[in-house]
Specification:
single chain, mainly alpha, Serine Threonine Protein Phosphatase 5, Tetratricopeptide repeat, two-stranded antiparallel sheet, 7 helices, 2 strands, elongated
Length: 151
């Protein structure tokens, strides 16, 4: 399977200028951060199927990469594949632990909410609020979920 990407240099894939062909077997030439940037660029260009293919292959090569988990989670959310997004976010929380970011917890709660798992969303947000008591995004989402959970 041949995947077309454009690359400025081997160090900076965020600026795409000269085309080259990249096969899934050659993904190891790029760092996870470079792959994340390439996938992000492909999504912004409307090339979602190509971005998904690259991301899935890169995640298989780098299953413990924060960059790959983050972009994979976001792609799953774009596709509204909530179960996959939840699975990847749980892996990300475990990888970042004990320093999982407020953004990670927020996404985990939103994905749970999209699956109508309001209790799970509340637990994630309540825990995140204990870690990040001054994070407005977490506090607002917690209030919103509490209003749905509590009669």
């Amino acid at each position: 399977m041949s995947l077309a990407l454009k690359q400025h240099s081997t160090e900076d894939v965020s600026v795409f200028s000269a085309p080259f062909n990249l096969t899934v077997g050659e993904l190891h030439r790029l760092s996870p951060a470079q792959i994340r940037e390439a996938v992000s660029s492909l999504v912004s260009q409307g090339k979602l199927p190509l971005a998904i293919g690259i991301c899935e292959a890169a995640l298989a090569l780098n299953p413990n990469s924060e960059d790959m988990l983050v972009i994979s989670c976001l792609l799953a959310e774009v596709q509204q594949d909530w179960a996959r997004a939840e699975e990847l976010l749980i892996q990300l929380v475990e990888l970042q632990s004990p320093n999982a970011t407020a953004q990670t917890w927020f996404h985990l709660a939103r994905v749970a909410r999209c699956q109508n798992k309001l209790d799970d969303a509340w637990v994630a947000l309540d825990f995140a609020a204990s870690l990040y008591p001054n994070d407005a995004m977490i506090q607002e989402e917690l209030k919103s979920v509490q209003a749905l959970v509590q009669p």
